[in-house]
Amino acid sequence: MSEPVQHEHHIVGPKTYLLILLILMVLTATTTGVAFIDLGIWNPIVAIGIACFKAVMVILFFMHIRYSSKVMMLTVGAGFFTFLVLITMTLSDYISRSWGLW
Amino acid sequence: MDSQAIATGHAAEVHDEEHPAYLRHHFVTVDQQRETASFGMWLFLLTEIMFFGGLFMAYLLYRNWYYDAFVASSNTLGIGLGTTNTAVLILSSFTMAMGVYSAEMRNRKGLITSLSLTILLGMVFLGIKTIEYHDKYTEHHIPGASFSVEDFVHPTDKRDVPLAPDMAQHAQLFFFLYFAMTGMHALHMIIGISILFVLLYQAWHGAYVNGHTSTIDNFGLYWHFVDIVWIFLFPLLYLISRHPLK
User: Fold this and answer.
1) Range of A17's domain?
2) Does residue A58 sit in the same domain as residue A24?
3) By C-alpha distance, which of B188, B177, B186 is closest to B141?
4) Domain residue ranges of chain B, discontinuous segments joined by +
5) Residue A20 included in any domain
6) Is A23 among the domain residues?
7) Quick one: which of A64, A68, B179, B218 is 20 to 30 A from B243 by CA?
8) Does residue A45 sit in the same domain as residue A88?
9) Are A75 and A55 in the same domain?
10) Are A46 and A84 found together in one domain?
11) Neighbour tally for B49: CB within 10 Å
12) Chain B neighbours among A 53-82 (CB < 8 Å)?
């Protein structure tokens, strides 16, 4: 088997787009509704969790990453991983500076 | 390597008449050209992730430092307008995705309709954002010389906990980040809408329906990315402070 020079192009259809639109709309209503319920420490976690899920839906289907080659998936993954490194390293610095004083 | 180059060079000669005019000579196939363009666009979007990432990082940190001020400020934002805008933007992402599909299907009418609807929804978003900004202006919640801590030190709503004047000053930090983040997002929308007008003009004159859809594809990626930024801004700015920890 020779090296492929290309990744087969996949056209995403209106049915998929409509389904994703529906999921995103339902999740938007859900996240707003949940904001009015007191879940204590879980309020931000649920809100960010839903946002992450929505973002993944947009990336996979609206931005076609679900149907892209592995090098594209890896590139996108690397981008968000680098962002997580930024958050984790900075926050671990701030949390550990005054360790035990909070 | 050499043998492959020769082989593909040979293949290109054999199938010369099948090559569309838009296939650049340094690509072997249309699909390879398409993927290269999309890869380049994603590299740009990665720099955008880090650009907005810095703002998100600042928000996260200051929210932990001045928690009470951030909670009180966040709750002055209109959750109804925020939710409406989220829905409008998601719908505009859908119409943009349909634009990409129409271009793939070589459907000029569908492409023009989709691009027009995306422009319209983008403008509705910016219109609602303007109303929100104007509210902040009348409430004296814009950071700077005319900022007033009054609403935070003496809240009119009985359920709101009054803040000490020094903590209330930190509400400016929330609103600074609010305007920086939503402002940079809105700037991306304005740039996006400007490009959409150009694409619409070109599509009107018959562009992008000959199988060469990279420009539309890549603009779609940009528009969806701007949508993703808002998907995170919405809960962080509007939602997560409704039930603060005591």
Assistant:
1) 12-63
2) yes
3) B177
4) 32-239
5) yes
6) yes
7) B179
8) no
9) no
10) no
11) 18
12) 54-55, 58-59, 62-63, 68-69, 71-72, 75-76, 78-80, 82
pTM, to two decimals: 0.91
Tell whether A41 and A56 lie within a shared domain. Answer: yes
Chain A / chain B CB contacts < 8 angstroms: 144
Tens-digit pLDDT profile for chain B (246 aa)? 444 444 454 444 555 556 888 898 889 988 899 999 999 999 999 999 999 999 999 999 999 999 999 999 999 999 999 999 999 999 999 999 999 999 999 999 999 999 999 999 999 999 999 999 999 999 999 999 999 999 999 998 877 889 999 999 999 999 999 999 999 999 999 999 999 999 999 999 999 999 899 999 999 999 999 999 999 999 999 999 999 987
**What is the phi/psi pair of residue B161, to 5°?**
-80, 125
Q: Is ipTM > 0.95 here?
A: no
CA gap B181, B177 in Å, rounded: 6
Phi-psi region at B161: left, alpha or beta (left = phi > 0; alpha = psi -120 to 50): beta
Superfamily of domain B32-239 in the CATH hierarchy: Cytochrome c oxidase, subunit III, four-helix bundle (1.20.120.80)
CA dihedral sign of residues A66, A72, A74, A78: negative
Q: What is the dihedral of CA B8, A71, B208, B196, to 10 degrees?
A: -150
Written as one letter, the residue type at B147 is F
Which residue of A lies nearest to B218 if distances are taken between CA atoms? A63
* Cβ distance of B240 and A47 shorter than 8 Å: yes
Q: Is residue A100 part of a domain?
A: no
Q: Give domain status of residue A57, yes or no.
A: yes
Say yes or no for a CB contact (<8 Å) between B35 and A72: yes
DSSP B155: -
Decide if A84 contacts B56 (C-beta within 8 A): no
CA distance A22 to B87: 11
The pair of structure tokens assigned to A38 is 């007191």
DSSP state string for B224-238: HHHHHHHHHHHIIII
Indicate if A51 and A86 belong to the same structural domain.
Answer: no
What's the one-letter identity of residue A68? S
